[in-house]
Amino acid sequence: MSLIFKRSNKILILKEIAKMSNCNLCEENKSFKKFLVIWFGQFISILGSGLSSFGLSVWIFYETGSATPFALSFLCTTIPIIIFAPIAGSFADRKKRKYIIMVTDTLDAVLKVIMVVLLLLQIMKVWMVYPILFISSTLSTFQGPAFSASIPMIVSKNKLSRANGMIQFSRAAQNMLAPVFAGALYPILNLSGLLVIDFISFFFAIATIAVIKIPQHKVNKENLSFFNTVIRDFKFAWNYLYEKKGFISLLFSFSGLNFIAITSLILLGPMILANYNASIYGTIEAVYGFSMILGGALSGILPNTNKKIRTIFMALGFSGVGLIIAGSSPRWYVIGSGFFIFALLVPYANTLLDTLFQSKIEPSVLGRVSALVSAILSSVTPIACMLAGPLADDIFEPLMSEGGILGNSFIGNLIGCGTGRGIGFLFILCGIILILSCILMIFNKNANTLEERIPDVAE
User: Fold this and answer.
1) Residue 149 burial (10 A CB sphere; 0-12, 13-18, 19+)
2) CATH class held by domain 245-459
3) Which of 101, 196, 371, 396 has the fewest CB atoms below 10 angstroms from its CB?
4) Are 443 and 243 in contact (CB under 8 A)?
5) Where exactly are the structural domains of the chain?
6) By its UniProt entry, which InterPro entries does this protein fall under (predicted)?
């Protein structure tokens, strides 16, 4: 009788465990469904923003016929990230993240309405675009840490990689789809029509975020001025990362790799247009965008490895091979193939990096830390913008010209000489530096053992 009783207890216990497992599984599925709702709204909004962004670039070109305004507009979208990222991190941790996302989306939609009114009144000038882009980028800077820090509060840890992969996919889809749709719609709707579509897409983002509850850890508030709070938060975020040995070296290595990538992407256009027309350039951009989409899809399928750092640098080393291929020949299809390889595993590397930070950084400080990370990674962008042109025009292009020092050498015989070949040679050097940097980081003890040394945060 006692044996039957003990066996019955075991059965009951097993049933309870099964129920608990099923409940946990249901909760995980529910939380991921919440993320899918938010992701869908943001995806539609991102596509809308891509349409207006492309339309704005076309409008600037038609108004000025010059490349200089493009550089200025690019700087206007980059500088706010560097300036306001620490403040944005404090907001993300100390204020309601849901409200930050909703308010920034709403204000950005208001900017679109302002531009539509200016266009309809025919009083919009190019100089007006710069402050609007600056404000829009500032809003995006505040929204980024709030959105990033919200993901681990909604999605269970074992599905973080999948969620981040979907975010990478949506960004890649914008790069591919937005120029295609905007290019077809611009002759019909003009910039004002694309801005109206962007404004409509804003309602998808607001509606989906409004119906989802986003949990948030409480942060102790001190009786300090906001400026002092920001400075203190910035120091806190820096010290927090510094104490987790390996994170700082990891960040600065990514800054260097980011510099290489931005320099290459800036010079892709001049390299192609030096020998081909805009149609070929558009084709290569489409190939690059398709590769990002494919990479974004793969990042949601590929395994969430326990060797994230090593995998990240192996993936980025593969990207370096793509740069070498892109620079090795003046033929457009070789360049396109190189940039396809260059972009393919970048979303996967970004997904692993995001997952690593979200699993190792406490949710209550993730906003501040994410903002600091964004500031460090973005700090190289203005430098790349200022150096890319002079490096190509004043150094590498003359070196690889037909009468240049390297143009008549074995390098010129190997990759060709003449217009655009200096940029090609610069691509090859960037690819080699990228591969060597990745190899060094793979053997960097502090960075490579980070996953084993630093425990995951509690869910």
Assistant:
1) buried
2) mainly alpha
3) 196
4) no
5) 16-214, 245-459
6) MFS, MFS_trans_sf
Query: Could you tell me which residue, 388 or 122, shows the higher pLDDT?
Result: 122
| CA-wise closest residue to 117 among 130, 132, 98, 103 | 132
Q: Token pair of 446, please?
A: 């502090």
Q: What is the maximal distance between C-alpha atoms in the chain? A: 100
Question: Which of 24-38, 54-68, 121-135, 172-186 is modeled with the greatest confidence?
Answer: 121-135
Q: Which of 35, 150, 167 is nearest to 104 (CA)?
A: 150
pTM of the complete model beyond 0.85: no
Domains 16-214 and 245-459 in one fold: yes
Q: What is the pLDDT of residue 28?
A: 52
**Residues 281-300 as b or e (16 or more Cβ within 10 Å = b):** beebbbbbbbbbbbbbbbbb
Number of H helices, E strands in the chain: 18, 0
Amino acid in position 354 = D
pLDDT at 98: 82
CATH superfamily of 16-214: MFS general substrate transporter like domains (1.20.1250.20)
